[in-house]
Amino acid sequence: MTNILDKIVANKRIEVEQQKKEVSIDQLLKQIANVDRKQGLFKQSLINSSTGIIAEFKRRSPSRGWIFENAKIEEVVPLYSNGGASAISVLTDTEFFGGTFADLTLASSLTKTPLLRKDFMVDEYQFYQAAAMGASAVLLIASSLTIQETKQFAIKAKELGLDVLLEVHNEKELRHINEYVDVVGVNNRNLGTFVTDIQASFDLVDKIPDEFVKISESGISSPQTVIDLRQVGYRGFLMGENFMKTDNPGKALANFIQELS
Within 13 Å and on the Cβ side, how many CA atoms surround 206? Predict the structure, then answer.
């Protein structure tokens, strides 16, 4: 049976082949040369941050459907920055998450907070896109890549000045960690079933080498959970639905951070 991740990745491969026909790597390189790189580095921002909250801009998800269908980057991202986000994750997948390339490009013009391009990376071409859109970091999902692909993609990301967030879900996927990775994230949501269990982060934290910045992703809704995860060694906490399901995601973030202090 095809799981959700397999379906997303298969669709992504088709999309990328079409995108290559529309915009060449040479065109992307020209765009990259003109990008105003005012964003700080993703990893360093997490190290420096007192909260480590990575606030996500996400309109929908395969598990929940629409969360905030009419959410606008210009209304959310500046408030995320002002509210204390250490980084901002922007979904650029349209089919399953309701995101667009324009979302990330606009976000990069509105904030100095580091931006993560959140998408399903299946081709080196996508890293040129990310750099051209003004991203500070990219996501590599271990469960959708071979160990060789993970390293190849991480090297390409570094060549283009992008930090690398490697996402794992179980101990077996820790084999994907390599010296080109900056941040290791434990996704508490199984991307095959979309079931969420925060215990995944507690189970894996000691198995991730300490030279990598560690973050916990998905299913975090309580300030106490962030405090507990920080105590065991996590420096970052990727949160989207908890803020996006409200009328004012930026205010929800600011209130959450206030409860942490």
Answer: 5
